[in-house]
Structures
1.
Amino acid sequence: MTTNDRLARRRIVTGVLMLPLFFLIALPGLFLGLLHSPAPHEVEVAVIGTGPQAQTVANQLAAHAKGFEVQTLSDADAGRNAVQDREVRAAYDPATGDLYVASAGSVQATEAGRALFAAVAQAGGTALQVRDVVPLPTADRLGTSALYIGIGAIVGGFLSGLIVAMIAPGLRVRTQVSVVAVMSVVVAGIETFYGWVLFDIFPGNAAAGAAVLAGIALVAGVVTLAGTRLIGPAMVMVSILLLVLCGVTASGLPVPLDMAPAFYNWMHDVLPTARGLSALRSVCYFDGEGVGVDLLVMAAWGLAAMVVLAVTRKKVAVPGNGAFGNLGADEAVVAGAAASASA
């Protein structure tokens, strides 16, 4: 066995062992860090009214309700609008006992607001009346469907970019990007069919949802394509970490960001797939309100990926891809790798 063969075998064994080890560390670390004890962190709530009663309630909550940021609003319409626009998670009117919430924004945050004001209403001898101004669809009471079809778009785009880069590295960059773009539309069509047709989960116009899903798949695809052309198969772990694991956990869909550790808020600000999932929820439940910043972050990542693709457009070989070619050409290397892994 030549020196090159031994080096190729070591690279293959290292790659085979690193990928499951990476999953073993990253997946439970990110998800358990998010899910193990969600609690309010500066959750915005409001007390409705301008009189002494409302001001007293607001002052007491500001002093004693840990994890909540309390403000006052002038009347019920202002409270309802603030909840619909996701400026506050809950708005309570102590004069009537009405509590305005939007469960489509987050089931956990809605429950946190309800529990807070249920105690306030009980202390004041008022019957709490919950008014859900943006309810979840009857077919999605847990509010998880947008998350899952969004994950489908992320993974579909990621795999499209990876496969094009690894299997057809000799194609022109323009052709590779075109293939990823076509696959992004296909992925979005499949996910839209699930969400709006087959299971009839989401209300409203499916076109906006399909556009966001296509954008999610496209940005995941071109970022993976560009990264693979730049650093080779190592981009698999980078994409899985940043686009899938970090993007999903930092999206605010599994756990609302105002009930998550600050680390996830920071990732949400910068990761395109986290922003994409946030935009998907906005178009599914809130008529697209607030998607501008989400789309800008996605566009910035897409533009950066296109710059990398332009810089690497003359490269034919993908870094590290030769090791994969050796697998089919030299069965002895494969056998040696298997023997080393089992030793």
Note: The mean pLDDT is 90.
2.
Amino acid sequence: MLVRARAIENQAFVVAADQVGDDGAGHESFGGSMIVDPWGEVCARAGDGEGFVAADLDTGRQDTIRGELPSLANRVPGAYRWPEEVTA
């Protein structure tokens, strides 16, 4: 669900690679890598376990979605500065 939210809020395709198995610290992962379009729709999803996922991406669709949902127009570029650029 979070991957889909990131795709929508950034209006971009998102490729989310997941891991499989025990990480040695007691955390188990089950796979499920996916590719999501800018509307949050899953283009391709790997099953549980090891696998590979691929999709043909229509970058024109990204432009269309950005035109239909212009949320990026509300961003404030000055709010995205690196800490060393901020003066005290």
Note: Residues 2-85 form one domain.
